[in-house]
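User: Modeling request: complex.
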Amino acid sequence: MTDELTTARPRVRVALVGIGAWGRNLARNYAQLPDAELCWICDTDPGRLAEAARHFPDAVCTTDYGQVLADPQLDAVVIAASAQAHFTLGRRALLAGKDVFIEKPLVLEVADGEELVRLAAERARVLMVGHLLEYHPVVLRLRDMIRAGELGRVLYVYSQRVNLGTVRQDENALWSLAPHDISSILFMLDQVPTDVSARGQCYVQRGIEDVVFMNMNFADRAMAHIHVSWLDPHKVRRITVVGSKRMAVFDDAEGTEKLRIYDKGATVGEECNTFAETVGLRFGDIRIPHIKSAEPLRLECQHFVDCVRSRAQPVSDGQDGLRVVRILAAAQRSLKSNGDPVTVDLVPAPRVAA
Ligand SMILES: NC(=O)c1ccc[n+]([C@@H]2O[C@H](COP(=O)([O-])OP(=O)(O)OC[C@H]3O[C@@H](n4cnc5c(N)ncnc54)[C@H](O)[C@@H]3O)[C@@H](O)[C@H]2O)c1
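Assistant: Request completed. Predicted assembly structure:
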């Protein structure tokens, strides 16, 4: 009955802007979602459009963004163009009265993010950012475990997002890769950092950092360390959470066993005679919880379509995108001052139900 009702409603009409390496994945998902219709594909590169037309024959392909926005039947614009173009494309779409999804990073300047958030609020438009890991079933499970206290107090988190490529020209490795780590760590910890620091180096291109080591400190003494690089021999996509009771490792490069929970920890006794008695190390079992697999991108696209229909605020809304941009901008300032800590003054996300 529910399915019949759902499919009886008009489908959300979507335009994709930017059909490059990642845009193709978005196009595939929107073309497959039963309650969405991929109507337009827009790209400034005619070669890419010609290829898109072969794969998505039902969509109209154009280099003219104005033509897309002039379509009165169009509900939403999905932007997966290069990061430099996000602000202008997103702003035009909001001004044209469309709901908007923008890939990460939302924008490259804090002021631009503020403007998009303001425009979306003024015009009651949905604004969502592609913080993909906030839709990843393993990240959702980890957040639930942290909220339920299963790991104890989170002491520190570290992540690695490294491999060889994709080398970008209009953003550095920090802005390209770290939005995933920052957004998922804030999401799992339900906290915002108090200060940020980062060090990195430009080896391949002048003035564009290829490798960055970034830190975030939280008010409760938790720390997060993020290592991002597109100049590395290994492909690693891993986040480790060390809690006072248990430890967890999310390895997204694993096929099915992506989450491991280690029943390991250290306890400090009181009134003991020797050091060995004072610090007790616990080496317990390792558990691999079963997590129903689902493509995070599919879940993310479905969530955008649902929000367009219901007018609900997305989990990764414009404020979430802006929060991450503020942290990236603070980390960028720290990079330029060789790692000096930069204070950030952020409003935490409202706590949504698990
Ligand atoms: N969520 C994720 O996991 C993920 C992964 C990869 C990339 N991304 C993001 O997706 C976006 C695109 O990345 P990509 O790897 O596909 O880059 P890409 O360079 O392969 O593709 C970008 C496409 O946008 C087009 N384009 C650029 N400016 C445009 C404009 N003004 N109007 C229309 N088209 C324009 C280019 O011609 C190109 O075809 C970036 O923001 C990137 O950060 C997200």
